[in-house]
Design brief:
It is a single chain. This protein is an alpha/beta fold. It contains eight helices and seven strands, in the order E-H-E-H-E-H-E-H-E-H-E-H-H-H-E. It has a seven-stranded parallel β-sheet with strand order 3-2-1-4-5-6-7, sandwiched between helices. Strand 5, helix 5 and strand 6 form a beta-alpha-beta unit. The radius of gyration is 17 Å and the shape is globular.
Length: 249
């Protein structure tokens, strides 16, 4: 029931970090992969790791049109679309009173707007096929927050509730929509956070019961589960992959 042979998955932000970790898991389970991102040079290593048959779609997820074009290109090039992972994300770290309108909009555009537009575009392909899986990447900050990432936390809370709304809307079409809530994963995004927030590394280690930072491959199993027939009666759920971070009082 975890076999993804013959399935096609589109992973935004799949050229590194969490996205690549999940893409590798899906590939190992048999799926063909399209990774969508802005940086073509960075994608070369990811394409080599994912192997023959993987494609790269260069896009900046700037608006509804580019998101729809990305999804349609994946379906055209690989012949179908079965799984969409909305993983692309960003953060700007500063005190809430110091954000400009442009900074706020930039985080929202990448983290929530693009995920909605890509899901819209995927719907027609899933509807025609009679099934589909959408996995949205939230964060432990979908349910918690801190002082330096107001737009990020807001967008990640929004994506979790958006998943629930889409799950309810599309359940009758046999489309499951779920959210993964990664904890503190060792990635380019959190490397920047550790450089900008004094003491963050040690504070996370002290809070996480597993006593370590996560790594991208920690998300692979959860992604395979949510992408496979094993999760056909799971929709609107939010699954934490956080080493116990959210469970700790």
């Amino acid at each position: 029931m975890f076999d993804l042979t013959g399935k096609v998955a589109l992973v935004t932000g799949g050229n590194g970090g969490l996205g690549l970790g999940m893409a590798l898991g899906l590939r190992e389970a048999g799926a063909r992969i399209a990774i969508a991102a802005r940086n073509r040079a960075k994608a070369a290593e990811a394409l080599a790791a994912l192997g023959e048959g993987t494609i790269f779609i260069e896009t900046d997820l700037a608006d509804q049109t580019t998101c729809h074009t990305m999804v349609d290109e994946c379906a055209r090039e690989l012949g179908r679309l079965d799984i969409l992972i909305n993983n692309a994300g960003m953060s700007i770290r500063k005190s809430p009173q110091d954000f400009t309108e442009a900074e706020w909009r930039q985080v929202m555009a990448v983290n929530i707007d693009a995920a909605f537009y890509a899901s819209q575009a995927a719907y027609k392909h899933f509807k025609a096929a009679g099934q589909g899986k959408i996995i949205n990447i939230g964060s432990v900050m979908s349910v918690t927050a801190n002082a330096y990432a107001t737009p990020y936390a807001t967008s990640k809370a929004a994506i979790m509730n958006m998943s629930k709304a889409l799950a309810v809307a599309w359940a009758g079409d046999n489309i499951q929509v779920n959210t993964i809530l990664p904890g503190w994963i060792d990635s380019e995004l959190t490397l920047n956070a550790r450089a900008q927030v004094p003491g963050l590394h040690d504070a996370i280690l002290a809070r996480v019961p597993a006593a370590r930072w996560g790594v991208p491959k920690d998300l692979a199993g959860t992604a395979v589960f949510l992408a496979s027939s094993a999760s056909d009666f799971v929709t609107g759920a939010a699954l934490a992959v956080d080493g116990g971070y959210l469970a700790r009082a």
